[in-house]
Amino acid sequence: EAQVTQNPRYLITVTGKKLTVTCSQNMNHEYMSWYRQDPGLGLRQIYYSMNVEVTDKGDVPEGYKVSRKEKRNFPLILESPSPNQTSLYFCASSLSIRGARGYEQYFGPGTRLTVT
Amino acid sequence: KNEVEQSPQNLTAQEGEFITINCSYSVGISALHWLQQHPGGGIVSLFMLSSGKKKHGRLIATINIQEKHSSLHITASHPRDSAVYICAVKETSGSRLTFGEGTQLTVNP
Fold this sequence. Notes:
heterodimer; A: mainly beta; four-stranded antiparallel beta sheet; 11 strands; globular; B: mainly beta; six-stranded mixed beta sheet; five-stranded antiparallel beta sheet; 61% strand
């Protein structure tokens, strides 16, 4: 089954304790992205990756890191989480993002993170 | 002003009603997406449009590139259509999606 998986689905942690949220897709997609969703602000892009070893900042990259060592995986790293990073996080992938046409986006189930 | 504006923000309807959700954007785009976010939080892609109109079951999406406007219509609405509907655009230049804030739809039986 074609899917994007994220782990963990729920996480409560404390300020400053490094954490990683994993994202994996089984569709051989080139493009992967991380978003956070906050009430009243909608989905905002954190980082995206056009392909292996190619990553770039989105709208709200501060406090986050990513890596794309393999095509299928795109982990989101919070080196020193703070309470303002409490949010609902989504990973998404698509075949590509290049060119004039668009490509269908596939979203993971979301990770609800609480930083106390 | 957001690059992508949706209206209304909230919409309550009775079962069977025809529903329209609007999306306006201010940049040149190559594609527009309509997404549905279920009450449990999961997001699924409904449509991707670059021109014209698409139909899937009771859902219809239209786009007018010249007017920078898209609409999502739901015919014969049902309580299971209750969800947040999100519009997103891919700019002509660039590699990112920009999202509207979403429209919360509630369909009462």
